[in-house]
Structures are given as structure tokens and as C-alpha cells.
Amino acid sequence: MAVKRSRAEKKISYDKKLCALLSDYSQILVVNSDNVGSNQLQNIRQGLRGDSVVLMGKNTMMKRSIRVLSQTTGNEAINNLIPLLVGNVGLIFTKGDLKEVREEVAKYKVGAPARVGLVAPVDVVVPPGNTGLDPSQTSFFQVLNIPTKINKGTVEIITPVELIKKGDKVGSSEAALLAKLGIRPFSYGLVAVSVYDNGSVFRPEVLDLTEDDLLGKFAAGVSMVTSMSLAVSYPTLAAAPHMFVNAYKNALSIAVVTEYSFPHAEQVKEFLKDPSKFAVALAPVAAAESAAVANDAAKVEEKEEVEEESDDDMVLNLFD
């Protein structure tokens, strides 16, 4: 027979468990648990068993335990969790990949009916088609301004209708109609709202960033630094190559219009004095490109001849 514990004993046990998890895990998903049932939560716990632990509780208890643990251990980073404990939330402690854990949790969403007073998390659209309801039920559709017609003794919706918009409260008429149509428009589960990783807190959308996204953002940042450095003439590692090239162009411009010269400007000045030398310098490059084009064309012709010969052989074999 299980021994019934007092409320104080339960609080002490919960505090020890939370403190132990905060000490052992450095990655935490803060999840919203609105409209999540106990059976659904149990299935999520079973699915995450191994590398992750789901802990629910009162926000006041969790905040107090975090403050006490921070003061005891001197770990002030965990205090960043306190502002996130707002509303009906829970904590998922994990040592695995945060993105994979979030995706695993999302698999356990279940469909739910539209109950009166609920705030719609998504738009609800009633599709056109036969409803299977008898003509006496047309009053529901008329109240909601849904165009219908009677087809073979049943009510048929003519066009798709946006019944409820995201963020609106579900009314009694909408709830009754959706129940009659057997439509369960909403789905609920644990939804990640924040991520805690070694003291840093960020939005869960960051987990969706790929290496290409990071490289693109890094390249955009380098480009902005380069532009700013060039605009204010402030040397940076990103702008240095452009500054050297611009300085070389300026020095070359001066050397071209004056008697001043330097080794890298001699060849340019020679080309300007005698443009035919420039044509001679480009001749080997043009010849190489022409040879490459001719070589490619010869390969294509040879391939076509081989294909034609194989086709001829096939035709002869058919009539041998």
C-alpha cells in the first residue's frame, strides 16, 4: 500500500528533483502545455525516455527552486529561465539534439473538437460537399451564412467557407456545426516556446537554421562591414583587399599620366604605347580557348558517328 505524502513532503521532493535536473542538464525546452491531457503527456514521456525528461509543475515552485539553486551554487545563468515560466508551461530536459527532440514532441499532437470559448489556433475552413445531414438541419448553416442546397435528401455545402479565423473565440453555433459534421479542426500538444542552452535563451525558430543559412548571414555581415569600412576609410580585414586594389588603381592612374613608374605599371604603360602588344599577349589565351572548343566539337561528332554505326548494326542484325 502506497504511503500518502503530505503537501510539504511533495514540495520538498519536487524541489530536489528539479534541482538535480538543472544540475545534470544544460539544455532545456520550455513548452506550452495548453489543452494537453494526462494520457497524451504520458505518451510523450514514453517517447522521449532515454535522453530527455519532461517535468511539469507550478510556476511559483519552479521559480523558487531556480532562485535557491542559483544562490546556493553561484550559477546565475539558470536565472534566465525564470522570465520564461509564464502561463501553462513545462520543461523538457535533454542531452540530445534540441531540434530532434522538438520534432519528436510534435509527433504526439492529437486532434481536438472546437469547444465553445476556445481561442482558435488556426483558421477553420468548412469544405464543400455532402454533409450527410437531413434538410431539417439547414438552420445551422443559415445562422452562419453558409450557402447550401438540398441534394438527394441531404444538405450539401456549395462552396468552402472560412468558419473561424485564427485568434477568434469559438462560438456555440460554430462548435455545434463542427460537431455535427464530425470535424475536429484543432490539434494540441507540447509546443516549444523558448530554448535554454548553457545559459543562453533564444526562440525555437533558431533550431530550423541550416549551415547554408548561417553562411549566408555571415556573408551578409561581412559585406556590410566591408561597405562601412570602405565608406569611412577605416581598414578592416574584410575591406583590406578592396583597399589595396583601389590603391593600386590610383597609383596606376598616376603612373599612366605622368613620368612616374613602378614595376607593376611598366607592362600597362607598354600596352598603352603599343596596343598591338596587348593583342599578342592575348593571342595564346584565345588560341587555347579555340583549341578547347574544337576539341569538344570533335568529341561530339565522334560520339554521333559511333551512335549511327551502332544503329546501322542493329538494323542489319534484324534482317540477317
Helical fraction? 40-55%
Mean pLDDT: 82
The CATH architecture assignment of the largest domain turns out to be 2-Layer Sandwich
Strand order of the largest sheet: 2-3-1-11-12
CATH class categorisation of the largest domain: Alpha Beta
Q: What's the number of structural domains? A: 3
**Count of DSSP H/I helices:** 10
Sheet with most strands? 5 strands, antiparallel
Shape designation: flat
Structural class: alpha+beta
Strand content: 15-25%
> How are helices and strands ordered from N to C?
HEHEHEHEEEHEEEHEEEHHHH
Examine the coordinates and then state which fold CATH places here, giving the name of the CATH topology of the largest domain: Alpha-Beta Plaits
Number of strand segments? 12
The radius of gyration computed from the alpha-carbon positions, rounded to a whole number of angstroms, is 36 Å
Domain Large ribosomal subunit protein uL10-like insertion: 114-183
Pfam families: Ribosomal_60s (PF00428), Ribosomal_L10 (PF00466), RL10P_insert (PF17777)
Protein name: 60S acidic ribosomal protein P0
Function: Ribosomal protein P0 is the functional equivalent of E.coli protein L10.
Characterise the protein shown here.
Residues 314-320 have low confidence and may be disordered. The protein has helices at 7-24, 38-48, 59-73, 98-106, 138-143, 172-181, 211-232, 240-257, 263-273, 275-319, and strands at residues 27-32, 52-55, 89-94, 110-112, 124-126, 129-130, 148-151, 154-157, 161-164, 186-188, 191-197, 200-202. With 320 residues, it is an alpha+beta fold. Helices cover 52% and strands 15% of the residues. The N and C termini lie far apart (94 Å). The chain folds into three domains: 8-109 and 189-208, Ribosomal protein L10, N-terminal RNA-binding domain (Alpha-Beta Plaits), CATH 3.30.70.1730; 115-186, Molybdopterin biosynthesis moea protein, domain 2, CATH 3.90.105.20; 211-273, no CATH class.
